[in-house]
Amino acid sequence: MEENQTRKIIHVDMDAFYASVEQMDNPELKGKPLAVGGSEVRGVVSAASYEARKFGVRSAMSGVQAKRLCPELIFVRPRFDRYKEISKKIRAIFKDYTDLVEPLSLDEAYLDVTVNKKGNPSATLIAQEIRKRIFEEVGLTASAGISVNKFVAKIASDYNKPNGQKTINPEEVESFLESLDVKKFYGIGKVTAEKMYQLGIYTGSDLKAKTIEFLDEHFGKSGRHYFYLVRGISNSAVKPNRTAKSVAAEHTFYTNLTSEVFMEEKLERIAEELSRRLQKHKISGKTVTLKIKYSDFSQQTRSKTLPYFISDKGLLFENAKELLYQEKMKDSVRLLGISLANLNTEIKKTVVVQLRFEF
């Protein structure tokens, strides 16, 4: 813990970012239940306003289900160019305080302010100032978590949402984690949480009581990770220049595809877009992965690793097509994607390509 305690990490998370941008740009939407993405008959909700969340509407939910939960729900198309524009303004504010900024997505980032450009020894006051500036200069609210490492800071940022912040001081870290439901731990998903419940592990305190041997036996290589996390031990540094692990392009279709012949045509377009981006950044890779999302929203991936690096559209398409016919489709398909991993270059930012949405 000694190394962790020297760090002052802030996790800033914008409040309902996509939906908040839409409400800011269109005052008629303010105070109303709003879903970005999807529709009453098609698509998936990308983000929901807090007014919609009160009805149980959540991201990744089908538009049909969202409308069922909230009949007054308003659907708007996502405008990713606009979200990126706002995100750049927010990151510019971050850079006024530290160059150690690690974006996780358009709407959240870690900041290491242990040593900062303002010479302010209080990470709590810096977080307050950043949130105030975002509201005054951009027009949106943000929440923040402040602690000794990224793991605890991220959990803390969700504690007083929306438009709030929470500081977990070094001496409070372990007791804070002990009191939490394990499902609140960043990195413990629904399936793992259910498994922990079955083993009698409901809180951080329960998790802390288990030995490394017990956790290794039941959770494999993740067991040791959980053992240290619940003790507040996480030495991952804020990395402003994260190396890309994969590059991807995908496409959601307006009408579900029922034939591999039609899928081939779509895959060729996706391969072309992916190849263009790869070559623009001078990246190539060996592992091709085909992503398939079915009409029931279940998802499947199929991968193959080549003995050589590729970035060419033709090779991407041929390998993706081979994966397409690897086994029979179980249902109609609503999304296809191709990603390339096992890269041969170190790029200074993650590149993920999302083709035009069709809802």
TrEMBL record:
Q: What is its EC number?
A: 2.7.7.7
Reactions that this protein is recorded to catalyse: DNA(n) + a 2'-deoxyribonucleoside 5'-triphosphate = DNA(n+1) + diphosphate
Q: Where is this site: Substrate discrimination?
A: Y18
Q: Which GO molecular function, any one, fits this protein according to its record?
A: DNA-directed DNA polymerase activity
GO CC terms of this entry: cytosol
EC primary class? transferase
Q: Which Pfam families match?
A: IMS, IMS_C, IMS_HHH
Give the cofactor note: Binds 2 magnesium ions per subunit.
Binding, Mg(2+):
D13, D107
Q: Does the keyword Nucleotidyltransferase apply?
A: yes
What are the entry keywords?
A: Cytoplasm, DNA damage, DNA repair, DNA replication, DNA-binding, DNA-directed DNA polymerase, Magnesium, Metal-binding, Mutator protein, Nucleotidyltransferase, Transferase
Q: What cofactor requirement does the entry state?
A: Mg(2+)
Locations listed in the record: Cytoplasm
User: Does the keyword Cytoplasm belong to this entry?
Assistant: yes
Protein family membership: Belongs to the DNA polymerase type-Y family.
Described purpose of this protein according to its UniProt entry: Poorly processive, error-prone DNA polymerase involved in untargeted mutagenesis. Copies undamaged DNA at stalled replication forks, which arise in vivo from mismatched or misaligned primer ends. These misaligned primers can be extended by PolIV. Exhibits no 3'-5' exonuclease (proofreading) activity. May be involved in translesional synthesis, in conjunction with the beta clamp from PolIII.
Put simply, this protein is called: DNA polymerase IV
Q: Which organism is it from?
A: Flavobacterium terrae
> Gene symbol?
dinB
